[in-house]
Design goal:
Elements (H helix, E strand, L loop, with lengths): L5 E5 L2 H9 L3 E8 L4 E7 L4 E6 L18 E5 L2 H8 L4 E3 L2 E7 L5 E6 L9
Parallel strand pairs: 1-4, 5-8
Antiparallel strand pairs: 2-3, 3-4, 6-7, 7-8
Length: about 120
């Protein structure tokens, strides 16, 4: 089974700018008058985001975390470069270096450094 897309609701154009800064480009944009929103598809060439821009949805409940989507995780080649761009602290665990940022609507986004797969001595 393969991931087809990730659906996200955002409140403003700031969300589009945020995901663009993560390397996603707009593939299509459609104003949906009947649904009172705008549907934007973005892709980084591997992952597709299905983004609904609608400022009328309630804000994300985050403290404590609610049921549903906990966070999204994207990989970058150089996390230190990413961290300096967003002015965030990089942590490290058994799986490698990572950090968290929030999109403009408060959705937690985990960023992990791409780590080569070690097939020797699994």
């Amino acid at each position: 089974m393969l991931l087809n897309h990730i659906a996200i609701i955002i409140s403003s154009e700031k969300g589009i700018e945020f995901y663009n800064s993560l390397g996603f480009e707009i593939i299509s944009r459609e104003e949906r008058k009947e649904q009172h929103d705008e549907l934007i598809y973005m892709s980084d060439g591997i992952t597709t985001l299905e983004i609904y821009k609608d400022k009328t949805h309630p804000k994300r409940v985050s403290n404590p975390e609610a049921y549903g989507l906990r966070h999204l995780c994207f990989e970058v080649n150089n996390i230190d470069e990413f961290a300096s761009k967003f002015n965030v602290f990089v942590k490290e665990d058994k799986k490698g270096k990572f950090t968290f940022v929030n999109d403009p609507d408060g959705l937690p986004i985990e960023i992990r450094e791409t780590k080569p797969i070690n097939l020797v001595g699994k």
